[in-house]
Amino acid sequence: MSVKIIKLVILINDLSFFCSHRLPIAEAAKDKAIEVIIGYGELGTANPSILEQKGFKLTFIPIKRGSINFLKDLKSMLHIWRFFKKEKPDIVHLVTIKPYLYGGAIARLAGVPCLVSAVSGLGTLFVHQNLKSRLIKSLLFPLFRLTFGHSNQIVILQNLDDEDILVRWGVLNKDKVRILKGSGVNLNKFNYFEESTGIPVICFAARLLIDKGVNEFISAAKIIKNKGIQARFILAGDLDSRNPSGLKAIDLDKIKREGNVDILGYHQDIPNLYSKSHIICLPSYREGFPKALMEAAAAGRAVVTTNVPGCRDAIIPNKTGLLVPVRDSEALANAIEMLLKNSDKRKAMGKAGRDLAEKEFKVENIVDAHLRIYKDLQMNISKS
After folding, report:
1. What is the fold of 7-184+363-383?
2. What is the reported pTM?
3. 72, 269, 271, 275: which one has the fewest Cβ atoms less than 10 Å from its Cβ?
4. pLDDT in tens, 95-132
């Protein structure tokens, strides 16, 4: 008697995000004899042939990140429908906003038996409270209700604030929610690094977005340098032209001319980057559960971040890092200055961060939680 092979479809808008945040889950599923098919919208920095060599099947789906375009998004939905009908998956795992919104709605229409919707933070739409954002949210309300209305679904959130917003908004049943702290960290790649000697380095490692607090980071660097304090500030991240809060090339030219921060661009070797840094800074306006701060803890680095959802969840305030008010360059500079002048406190925070990472951020814990979710959804089917 032949055993039915479980088929898992992972739909994501950016293949490089899959590689950096979801690959260990897919590999573990494959090790459990689950067939894994990856649908993706953009390559990013990923190399598809490497994933294919690992035994994954890849399918391009035209999903464009960024602003909503009705005709293009309708085309995306049609392709998702065809994708699901062709593959006939047992489980669909949707990651990032357009996949979980459009894919969630299509999964219900296509009769997908098990659905996992991963919300990696609520993003720009929920950061801003202007008229445009409120209008878009009101228009999207029925779609959110539809996408989170599958009868056999788990919705993965990364912090309790996001859960509270979606439940109070009336689009999500709390019984469906599982809180997982980000995508985890491979602690074998991040050893506890002793601080290097020389001029201290403050590192911002994220996409160059206004909503990530890049402008506040630059302003804080200027404040510190105007005080005559020796420090090097570095930006390690890509431009993101599809994100409405992304910096432009002309902005980078201005930053270079001002000379307060060094621009490294996209940096793949984060363990090496953090080993040469002394403080990791992420003054974001809102996050799900930022990988940059989990990796900072794993590397044994003190953190300065903002008191907002996601960021405050990723540290133990005053033990592994410092919290500052959002959009406050002066407070950010003061916190950085305090850690620059107190190396013993900074190093103690780094060691406490490593302890936190070993206890809370192991990638194995996140992988195991996903495999349990897949199993629970399948068990629901067998009971019905």
Report:
1. Rossmann fold (3.40.50)
2. 0.91
3. 269
4. 998 999 999 999 999 999 999 999 987 766 676 677 77
